[in-house]
């Protein structure tokens, strides 16, 4: 029951978003505008606030961050194994491989907040700050033909900018004024619920007309292989129970909704990517409770 109480409210918000977009007639501009507000304003505010205000001690979080990055690298490596293993049409592998290692930040912070409160949110914010550039570089590298555009893609990422700004603000010994702290806190609180609703609104279960084998591979890597490797590394490194739980839940997250945007913008296979995102999200409603049960 404890596990159900932890995860069910967030899953209900995702399902609510899937229902809401189908029963309302608010139109594409409304949903696109909402997504932009969350991605460029609300979510960066949460990341900056959580990393700027909580004490950062890399002597205590260094191993934790290394294992989180190892989780991302294992997803990249196992994702690329699909290229020689499966014969996929052009832009199927390139579009889908990112779903084996990119992660849904909205769900990440929602779970971290429930598991660890403000401290858990801060730790997950640190992971996001270090993992976003790594995962984005790998995803863009697979899709982009002009590799010179890679740095520009990273510099424009609001999640990366917000997290690094918060970390630098924190390390400089600065403190947020009470008014700024309250303002950013309220923006951040709004981002989690709205972000989960937008995850549900983006669910699309069409687009899998071929390449079922490679799709199953990417989903298995993301939801089972990567968290299993992370769990083993965490036990071997002797992480505390809190850090082990957070890093394994991070590794077990469904893939990022923005995978679709990147695939379409860079000439990839949008429908195939949309299916992988949706399938990953729905399957995680079963796999995340199982991983959490293992960690309790």
- Note the beta-strand portion: under 5%
The coarse silhouette is globular
Number of domains: 1
- Per CATH, the architecture is Up-down Bundle
The DSSP helix count reads 13
Largest sheet: none
Q: What is the share of helical residues?
A: over 70%
Rg calculated over all Cα atoms: 18 Å
The CATH class is identified as Mainly Alpha
Q: What pattern of helices and strands is seen along the backbone?
A: HHHHHHHHHHHHH
Low-confidence segments, ≥5 residues, pLDDT <50? Answer: none
Q: What is the distance, rounded to the nearest whole angstrom, between the alpha carbons of the first and last residues?
A: 12 Å
Beta strands, count: 0
Structural class: mainly alpha
Kindly report the CATH topology: Na+/H+ antiporter like fold
Q: Any overview of this molecule?
A:
The protein is mainly alpha-helical and 296 residues long. It has one domain: Up-down Bundle (Na+/H+ antiporter like fold), CATH 1.20.1530. It is built from 13 helices and no strands. It has helices at residues 2-23, 27-53, 58-80, 82-85, 92-96, 105-143, 150-155, 158-171, 178-201, 212-237, 241-251, 258-265, 270-295. Helix 1 (2-23) runs antiparallel to helix 13 (270-295) and helix 12 (258-265) runs antiparallel to helix 13. The model has no long low-confidence stretch (mean pLDDT 85).
Give a nutshell description of this structure.
The protein is an all-alpha fold and 296 residues long. It contains 13 helices and no strands.
Draw up the topology in text:
Blueprint: H1 2-23, H2 27-53, H3 58-80, H4 82-85, H5 92-96, H6 105-143, H7 150-155, H8 158-171, H9 178-201, H10 212-237, H11 241-251, H12 258-265, H13 270-295
Helix pairs in contact: 1-9, 1-13, 2-6, 2-8, 2-9, 3-6, 3-10, 3-11, 6-8, 6-9, 6-11, 10-11, 10-13, 11-13, 12-13
């Amino acid at each position: 029951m404890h596990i159900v109480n932890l995860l069910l409210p967030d899953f209900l918000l995702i399902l609510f978003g899937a229902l809401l977009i189908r029963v309302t007639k608010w139109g594409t501009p409304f949903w696109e505008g909402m997504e932009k507000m969350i991605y460029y304003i609300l979510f960066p505010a949460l990341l900056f606030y959580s990393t700027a205000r909580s004490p950062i001690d890399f002597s205590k979080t260094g191993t934790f961050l290394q294992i989180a990055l190892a989780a991302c690298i294992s997803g990249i490596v196992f994702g690329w194994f699909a290229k020689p293993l499966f014969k996929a049409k052009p832009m199927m592998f390139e579009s889908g491989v990112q779903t084996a290692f990119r992660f849904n930040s909205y769900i990440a912070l929602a779970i971290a907040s429930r598991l660890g409160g403000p401290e858990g949110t801060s730790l997950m914010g640190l992971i996001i700050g270090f993992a976003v550039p790594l995962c984005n570089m790998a995803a863009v590298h697979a899709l982009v033909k002009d590799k010179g555009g890679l740095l520009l893609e990273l510099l424009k990422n609001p999640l990366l900018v917000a997290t690094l700004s918060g970390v630098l603000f924190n390390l400089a010994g600065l403190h947020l004024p009470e008014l700024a702290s309250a303002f950013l806190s309220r923006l951040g609180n709004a981002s989690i619920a709205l972000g989960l609703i937008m995850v549900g609104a983006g669910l699309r279960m069409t687009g899998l007309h071929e390449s079922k084998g490679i799709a199953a591979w990417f989903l298995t890597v993301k939801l089972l292989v990567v968290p299993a490797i992370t769990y083993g590394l965490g036990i071997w490194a002797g992480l505390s129970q809190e850090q082990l739980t957070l890093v394994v839940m991070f590794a077990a997250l469904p893939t990022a909704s923005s995978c679709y945007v990147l695939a379409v913008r860079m000439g990839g296979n949008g429908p195939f990517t949309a299916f992988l995102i949706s399938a990953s999200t729905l399957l995680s409603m079963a796999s995340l409770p199982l991983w959490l049960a293992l960690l309790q």
